[in-house]
Amino acid sequence: MIWHSNNNFTVASRAASPCLGDSDVFDPNMENIINSDSDRTEINSDRFSDVSEENSSDISETDSSHEDSDPDLFDGAESMVVDMDSDNHETRSSSPGPSASLSTPALDHLKAKLLGNYKCPAQAPPGRLVVPTLTSVERLSLLHYIAWQTSGGTVKAYDLHAKVLKEATGLAILSLFRAQKLVMHLTRLTPRKVDMCLNSCIAYTGEYAGLDACPYIPASATKPCGAARYKQTGIKDKMPRAQLTVLPIKATIQALYANQDTSRLIRHRDRTLKQILQLTAEAMGASKQSYSDFSNGKIHTEVHYKTLGLFQDPRDVAFALSTDGAQLTMKKHSNTWILILILLNLPAELRYQSSNVIINFATPGPNSPGDIESFLHPLFEEMAQASEGIWIWDALQDAYFVCRAWITLGLGDMLGSAKINGMAGHGGIYGDRFSMVQAAKTSNQSGARAQYYPILNIDHFNPDRYKYSFNDIPMHTYQDYFNVLLQLEEANSKAERERITRQTGILRLPLCAASAAFFHPSFFPIDPFHLFYENTMAFIWDLWTIQNRSTPGEIFRLVPAVVATLGRFVEAAVDTLPPIFCGSIRNPHLKRQSQYKIYEWMALLHWYLVPMAIELGFHPIVIENFADFVWCIEFAMTPIARTEEDLWILRKRIVKFLTGFEQIYIGNNPANNHRARLCVFQLIHVPVHIEWNGSIRTGSQATVERTIGKMGQKIKSRRLPFANLTNLIIQRERIRLLRLYYPDHKVQG
Predict the structure, then answer these.
(1) What is the pLDDT of residues 635-692, one digit of tens each?
(2) Predicted TM-score of the model (pTM)
(3) What is each CA distance from 127 to 188, 256, 402, 642, in whole angstroms?
(4) For residues 707 and 340, what is the distance between their CA atoms, to the nearest angstrom?
(5) Cα–Cα distance between 653 and 61 in angstroms, integer?
(6) Secondary structure of 273-290 in the HEC alphabet?
(7) Residues paired with 42 in a beta bridge
(8) How many CB atoms are located within 10 Å of the residue 584 CB?
(9) What is the rounded distance in angstroms from the CA atom of residue 25 to the CA atom of residue 551?
(10) Could you state, in order of their start, the residue ranges of all structural domains in the chain?
C-alpha cells in the first residue's frame, strides 16, 4: 500500500472520506487518489508517501512501492515528483496554495468589526522619530530603576539604594513614582483596561461588549453565570468589578524598528525567504529546498508570500501567538492564562530568548477563562489595524514606512489549542484536527465513546468505521474547511450544526481565522514539547509499568521488581550522565505521580531507557519498537535543515513505529483500542509539519511554559498574586522597550 495524505495546499476539494455519511459536506465527485499500479510516487508539497505492509506479521521495515496520484486533484497546480527508485531524488517545485483567500459572510463581518473605521493614513507622520536625550539624573535614575526591577527589589530597597547613589554621585535619583512615569513616557507603552467577568468567564469585548451581566454558561452548569459587570459606587456612578490589562503591540513594533540592531535582525525572515525562492528558481524546476525554520517552510514561502501576497515588504512582521494556563499559588482558585507573541522575523537562536518574547496579557483569575477568544479580542483588533498598515520609523533607513504585521500561527498544547482553534477537540468523533480519521470505540457498552485511533484493524465494536491505512490518511483541506464553516453558518438549527460537527470535527469559526495569514489546518500546529514527552513518552511508560494497563503474558508488561530496578537505574545514572541544563532526574517508579517534569521524560527518552531496557532484558521486539520511537523524535527535534528525502525517511520510520506499536499493544483485540491514543496517532503528521513550518520546534509550547515559570517565580504577593503578576508584566515590557530605545542602558538582571 502507498500512503497518501491528500492535505494539499490547493483549494480543490479532496475526496469525501468514506466515513462521512452526508455527501453535502464534501464534494462527492472527488475520487480516491490511490493508483496502486504505478511504480512512482507523486507528492504534492505537503504530502509524503511511504510503504509498510498492512497487518504485517512482524514489525520490521518493509519494502516500498510507488504510484502516481490524480493530477486533477491539484486543480492544475504543479506537484513535486520524487522517483524513489532513482539514486538521485530530484524534485520539481510545486505551487501549493489557494487561488485566493477564502471567507464566509460571518468571517467578513468579523474582520470588519475588528478593523472598525481604521484606515492607514495616506501620509507619514511629519518630521522624524526623535528619541529624547536624557539628563544625567534621568540616565542614572533609569539605570537604577532597571537594576531594581530586574532584581526583584522592594520599594524600600529602591529608596535605600537611591540614597547610596546620591551620596556617591551627587545626583538626586528620581523617586520610584517619577521613574515609572518617565519609563511610561519614553516607551509609549500605555496598557489598555478591558472589563471582564468577575468569575473569569468572559471579557466584555466583541459580541459581549454591550452587556451588563455575564451570559456565559460554564460546562458544569445549566444556566448562565449572571455575574454583574459593574458595581455601584454612588447613586449614578459605577465601576467594573474586574478588568483585564492588555499591552499594545504597536509600541513594541515601534521600539524594535527604532533600534538599528533589531531593525536589521527583523529582516532575517525576508532574507531567508528570498534565499529559498532564489534557490528554487535557480534549480530550474528541480526543487532543492530544505526546511529549517518558519521562514523557509512551505506555508510561508508558498501560501503567505506567493499566493496570499503577504509579506511583500522585507520589514513586514510575522507573529506566532502562544497561550497556556497556570496556577499561581497552591490555592484552588488561582488560575491564570498568559498570552505571549513570538517574533518569527528573528533568527531562531534569538526569537525564543526571554528578552525577545512579548507578553500581551495574563488573565487575573481566579478561574481559567471560559471564552478565551473574548480575551484575545483586543489583540486581534490591534492586529487588524496592523494588517492594514501602520506608519513606523525605521532607524536603519532613517525614514517612516508602512509596516504590516500578521499573526501566522496559533500555538497551544492539545487542550489549549482546542480553546482557540474552533475544532471539536480530542474528545470528538473526528478529534484529530489535521485529518478526517474517525475515532474508534473500545467496547459496545452503553456510553462507550469513540476517541481512539487504531488504524490497522476493523473490529466488531466499530463496524461502520472506514478501514484506514497509514498510507491513506484523509486530511483536512483549506477549501473543505471553509465549505464546512459556510454550512455551519447556514444551518437552521442547533441539531443540524451538531450533525455537521460530528461529521467533520469542525465546531465553529475561530477568531484566529480573522488573520489574513490564516491557513487551515497548519495554523494550529503540533506542540512537540507536550506531544512527544509529556503525552506519548509518559503513556508508553504507563503501559509498561502500571499493572492494570496490561494483562499477564503481554510482551511489554514489566513485573514490579523490574520496574523498581529500572527506576533505581535512572536515579543512579546521574553519576555518569548528569543533566546540565535542567534539574536532577528522579526515580520514575517512585515519582511518576509527583508532577514528573517534561525534562525528565526527555531524559528517559533520549538517554536512559533504550540501554537500560537492553540491560534488564526487555523483549527485543519492544526494544526495537521503542528505539524506532526514539529515533523519530530525535530526527524531528534535531535543529538542522531537512530535505524532502530526509522527510521521506522520517515518514517511513514513523509508519514502522506506529505499525509495530499497534501490533504489540493492540494486536487483534479491539478491547485494546484504548491504547491507540490520539497522541500516538498524531506522530504521523510530524513530517508534514516540518514541511509546513520549517521545523517541528516552531509549534513548541516550551517558550510560553518558561515565561509562565519565570513570571511566577517573581510573584511576592500571596494575597494579591494576579495584581502582582500584571504589574510585573507591565514593568517587564516597559524595560524591554526602554532597552531598545536606549541600548546603552542594558543592566543585566
Answers:
(1) 999 999 999 999 999 999 999 999 999 999 999 899 999 999 999 999 999 999 999 9
(2) 0.85
(3) 18, 19, 15, 47
(4) 8
(5) 8
(6) HHHHHHHHHHCCCEECCE
(7) 81
(8) 10
(9) 42
(10) 136-187, 528-699
